[in-house]
């Protein structure tokens, strides 16, 4: 009996050893693989245009998603001096909230774009639009972003309807570009800035 138990224990340990050795080779239980090759580190920009308003979304392996808001010089506020302000109404899909949606309102300055096409924000991170604590509490994701612009008491709110950008439309239908070179940092690629500015013209 003791000999039988010993043989069974030996076989059990051999089986476990084989499984442990095979698991990495087969990818069993492995997490997502890190990107390989320069292509994986190229940033991507998606852009939608609604009248005088441009919304861009830039993402990359080392870059937290960055939203960029532009206001063309052809807009009714395009004759302003150095900047306008953008009011962003961010509607969140919040599965853990009682109403299933949350709304966060923020104001950001939009400074004159140096090519003279209008006004353009710097990159606005996701958690500048809404708090990280809100994300953790309600498992939020951005459903749509509404924009209105103001300067010196004047407004362009698309006749009180705001300029509405649905995130699904942006991801599905937005004009897309990728950086020419891999970007191994958290700055937006220069050629993607050029791509967004091109949509301002």
Give the topology, please.
Layout lengths: L1 H25 L17 E7 L2 E8 L2 E10 L10 E11 L7 E12 L5 E3 L3 E2 H4 L2 H7 L2 E11 L2 E3 L6 E4 H7 L1 E4 L11 H9 L3
Antiparallel strand pairs: 1-2, 1-11, 2-3, 3-6, 3-7, 4-5, 4-8, 5-6, 8-9, 8-10
Largest sheet descriptor: 11 strands, antiparallel
Number of helices: 5
Number of beta-strand segments: 11
Q: How many domains make up the 3D coordinates?
A: 1
Strand-pairing-aware structural class: alpha+beta
Determine Rg (CA atoms, Å): 25 Å
| Range of helix content | 25-40%
- H and E order: HEEEEEEEHHEEEHEH
What is the averaged pLDDT score?
A: 87
Q: Report how far apart the termini are.
A: 86 Å
From the spread of the alpha carbons, the general shape counts as globular
> Which regions contain 5 or more consecutive residues with pLDDT less than 50?
1-8, 10-29
What is the strand content? Answer: 35-45%
Verbal overview:
- The protein is α+β, with helices and mostly antiparallel strands and 201 residues long.
- The protein has one domain.
- It contains 5 helices and 11 strands; from the N terminus they run αβββββββααβββαβα.
- The chain has helices at 2-26, 126-129, 132-138, 167-173, 190-198, and strands at 44-50, 53-60, 63-72, 83-93, 101-112, 118-120, 124-125, 141-151, 154-156, 163-166, 175-178.
- Strands 1, 2, 3, 4, 5, 6, 7, 8, 9, 10 and 11 form an 11-stranded antiparallel beta sheet that branches.
- Strand 4 (83-93) and strand 5 (101-112) form a beta hairpin.
- The chain is globular and about 50 Å long.
- The model is unreliable at 1-8 and 10-29 (pLDDT under 50).
């Amino acid at each position: 009996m003791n000999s039988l138990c010993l043989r069974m224990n030996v076989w059990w340990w051999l089986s476990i050893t084989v499984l442990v050795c095979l698991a990495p080779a087969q990818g069993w239980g492995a997490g997502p693989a890190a990107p390989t090759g320069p292509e994986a580190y190229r940033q991507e920009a998606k852009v939608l245009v609604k009248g005088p308003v441009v919304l861009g979304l830039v993402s990359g392996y080392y870059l937290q998603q960055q939203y960029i808001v532009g206001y063309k010089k052809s807009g009714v506020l395009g004759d302003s001096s150095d900047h306008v302000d953008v009011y962003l109404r961010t509607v969140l899909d919040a599965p853990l909230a009682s109403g299933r949606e949350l709304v966060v309102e923020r104001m950001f300055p939009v400074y004159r774009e140096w090519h003279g096409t209008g006004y353009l924000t710097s990159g606005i991170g996701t958690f500048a639009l809404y708090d990280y604590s809100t994300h953790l509490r309600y498992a939020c994701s951005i459903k749509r972003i509404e924009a209105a612009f103001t300067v010196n008491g004047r407004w362009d709110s698309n006749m009180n309807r705001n300029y509405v950008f649905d995130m699904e439309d942006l991801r599905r239908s937005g004009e897309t570009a990728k950086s020419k070179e891999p970007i191994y940092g958290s700055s937006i690629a220069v050629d993607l800035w050029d791509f967004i500015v091109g949509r301002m013209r």
